[in-house]
Task: inverse folding
């Protein structure tokens, strides 16, 4: 395909995927209390950010933002360490162990999480974790998703083998080699996984829906759910809240996307 | 490296605690009656007998099956198609790659609210564009098939993870292959069909198998926000059905039996795909 066609295809794809998100922002700019538009309109007449203030009258968004932040602050670092260790183990083990570890990781990716909702709820209740934010951080113990382990495995695999061998000759332990040799060399992968993990905890609706009753512990996605039940037809209000919930995730992703696409995914160095 | 596999222990422990243990607990609880209060009471295979006779379960199973049949081919085609178009470093391709990933980054709840707005029949953008084109105002969400279609469409935009896996797979193909093809004067489409897609077949199959599993999950939030399982229960998927049994009616034993059925269905679906792949020699 010629370069020109590729450029046109890129532009078309970008428009299709990013286009709908634009409507979220545009429709949130309607003045609160104004009657809904009479038919389709792209931008409301004299656009304003006033509706954003109104969101705080309906739900305690500050508190929910704080709860979401607390969950991410704990879960993201734990995820990164667990995933990086496991990825390093996959990349540096001997053939037989590597095959086993990859098999376990891929099988874990195939487990339907929906089937685990009820038994996890029961186990968390026995452990006294329901109605605590800890329940929302728990997936960090399994690197949140095996996908992150595979990203790290790929990154650690690309570190030149002779660096590991030299460190081994110096008598360093695997942990020391991970810490001092491998980690500094896989920084882009670390950054990418940290951001993806942040986005996943920030966005998670299902876990808080299952494990939290106490409204003081609600995270931002549950706040959106509550707002929808309070004001199901008030689209400017719902979309203003949606924009505020989305901004941190999109900002983090945009900051990391170069590290993610350009460095992490390169298979040959 | 000797002993480096020990660094995988926390991850393996996490899998044990959060996947293996709950899976065993589901298998055990499926044979009990349990409301969350008191102790579970053993009832033998009652739950499974009830499950087979439950028309609500059969309906949810059918809805999830339809969702998989409609959504997985579209999503995998979108993942691979976008990866093949955007894998090169070219002007605008970096921005396009970020744009493809963007809807995946938007919190599901916010994304569902956006679609509720887009599809709203009175003044939503989709109705507006349809009206401008002279088409009937679609009332997608009040029609059973329209609602199913709408939820499938939403999912086609959230393909970020599969897209990057396809992208990595495409970039890992040796460039020499393509040099010799271009020397032979093969057309782009011919090379895609005869070289690229067969070489990527194992990854595409992995994506499809994973997407069948994900389908149980990705359909949950849209069904909760957009349709509440309706109209006429057309979008009550297995996940929503199990969620209601467990967290609205507190039938945790019965919901565990549904969870066990999800494991069985997923395993069967993956096995079926594996057999098809073997039969057509797609696994190399």
Result:
């Amino acid at each position: 395909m010629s370069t020109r066609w590729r450029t046109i295809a890129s532009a078309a794809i970008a428009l299709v995927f990013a286009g709908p998100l634009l409507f979220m922002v545009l429709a949130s700019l309607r003045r609160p209390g104004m009657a809904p538009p009479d038919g389709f309109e792209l931008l409301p007449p004299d656009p304003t950010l006033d509706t954003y203030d109104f969101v705080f009258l309906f739900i305690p968004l500050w508190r929910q933002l704080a709860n979401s932040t607390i969950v991410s602050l704990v879960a993201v670092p734990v995820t990164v360490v667990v995933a990086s260790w496991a990825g390093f183990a996959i990349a540096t083990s001997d053939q037989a162990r590597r095959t086993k570890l990859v098999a376990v990781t891929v099988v874990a990716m195939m487990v339907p999480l929906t089937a685990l909702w009820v038994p996890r709820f029961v186990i968390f209740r026995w452990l006294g974790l329901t109605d605590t934010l800890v329940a929302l951080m728990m997936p960090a113990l399994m690197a949140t998703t095996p996908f992150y382990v595979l990203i790290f495995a790929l990154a650690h695999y690309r570190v030149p083998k002779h660096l590991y061998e030299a460190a081994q000759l110096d008598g360093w332990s695997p942990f020391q080699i991970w810490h001092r040799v491998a980690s500094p060399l896989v920084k882009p992968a670390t950054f990418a996984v940290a951001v993806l993990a942040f986005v996943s905890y920030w966005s998670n609706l299902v876990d808080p829906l299952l494990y939290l009753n106490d409204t003081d512990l609600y995270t931002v996605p549950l706040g959106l759910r509550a707002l929808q039940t309070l004001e199901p037809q008030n689209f400017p209000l719902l979309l203003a809240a949606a924009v505020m919930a989305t901004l941190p995730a999109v900002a983090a992703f945009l900051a990391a996307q170069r590290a993610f696409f350009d460095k992490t995914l390169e298979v040959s160095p | 490296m000797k002993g480096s596999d020990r660094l995988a222990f926390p991850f393996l422990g996490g899998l044990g605690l959060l996947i293996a243990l709950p899976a065993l607990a589901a298998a055990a609880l499926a044979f009990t009656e349990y409301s969350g209060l008191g102790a579970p009471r053993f009832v033998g295979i009652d739950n499974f007998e009830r499950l087979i006779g439950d028309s609500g379960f059969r309906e949810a199973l059918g809805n999830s099956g339809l969702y998989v049949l409609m959504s997985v081919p579209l999503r995998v085609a979108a993942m691979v198609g976008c990866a093949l178009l955007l894998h090169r470093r070219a002007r605008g391709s970096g921005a396009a790659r970020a744009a493809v990933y963007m809807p995946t980054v938007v919190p599901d709840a916010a994304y569902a609210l956006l679609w509720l707005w887009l599809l709203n029949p009175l003044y939503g953008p989709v109705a507006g564009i349809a009206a401008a084109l002279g088409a009937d105002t679609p009332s997608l969400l009040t029609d059973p098939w329209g609602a199913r279609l709408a939820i499938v469409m939403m999912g086609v935009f959230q393909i970020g993870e599969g897209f990057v896996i396809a992208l990595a797979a495409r970039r890992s193909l040796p460039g020499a292959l393509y040099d010799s093809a271009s020397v032979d004067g093969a057309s782009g489409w011919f090379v895609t069909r005869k070289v690229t897609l067969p070489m990527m077949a194992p990854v595409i199959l992995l994506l499809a198998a994973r997407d069948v599993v994900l389908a149980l999950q990705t359909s949950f939030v849209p069904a909760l926000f957009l349709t509440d399982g309706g109209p006429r229960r057309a979008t009550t998927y297995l996940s929503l059905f199990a969620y209601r049994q467990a967290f609205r009616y507190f039938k945790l034993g019965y919901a565990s039996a549904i969870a066990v059925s999800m494991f069985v269905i997923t395993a069967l679906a993956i096995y079926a795909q594996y057999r098809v792949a073997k039969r057509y020699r797609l696994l190399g």
Chain A has a mean pLDDT of 91. Chain A has one domain: 50-264. Residues 192 and 260 of chain A are 5 Å apart (CA to CA). The two ends of chain A are 26 Å apart (CA to CA).
